[in-house]
Specification:
4 helices, alpha+beta, globular, 5-stranded mixed beta sheet, about 150 residues
Length: about 150
């Protein structure tokens, strides 16, 4: 198969929303938060506006994505920080290089967008040890731990 990693476009949003629905099940669905496709589509458009949506495409089908946003660093607005909102590869393609290629491409998009610090999340519900090893190999360092409380 032929894999293409590229910037995400508005034409990709509906497919990204489909993948996000699956991502949601293992991320926020477990917290009892319902999935809203309209909000999700708007979030992907924001990622495009921030130039931080990457997609992996095989034979014309988008099979993965990294979605991110950027903002000024709270303590020094001369620096932009970027945050990954979702990193997803369809299960049938997880044994390919799509995930790593997507992450490397997303990092390059972040650099091009002026981001100085890029953060990646690690879901406790989705192979955290395996993902931590990937992050370690790619030069990421643990910096903060996130705890969630739903009201």
């Amino acid at each position: 198969f032929s894999m293409l990693i590229r910037k995400g476009l508005s034409a990709d949003v509906s497919r990204c929303v489909e993948m996000a629905a699956e991502f949601h099940k293992i991320a926020y669905g477990l917290l009892g938060i319902e999935f809203c496709p309209i909000s999700t589509a708007a979030s992907f458009e924001l990622c495009i506006e921030h130039e931080l949506l990457s997609v992996a495409q095989i034979d014309g089908l988008v099979i993965g994505m990294v979605a991110g946003v950027k903002a000024p660093l709270m303590m020094n607005h001369n620096h932009l920080v970027g945050a990954e909102l979702a990193w997803w590869v369809e299960p049938d393609y997880r044994k390919t290089s799509a995930g790593l290629k997507l992450l490397k491409f997303a990092e390059n998009l972040a650099i091009e967008a002026g981001v100085k610090i890029w953060s990646m999340m690690l879901l406790e519900s989705s192979e955290p040890e395996k993902v931590a090893k990937i992050y370690d190999k790619m030069g990421y360092k643990p910096a903060e731990r996130t705890y969630l409380k739903v009201f």
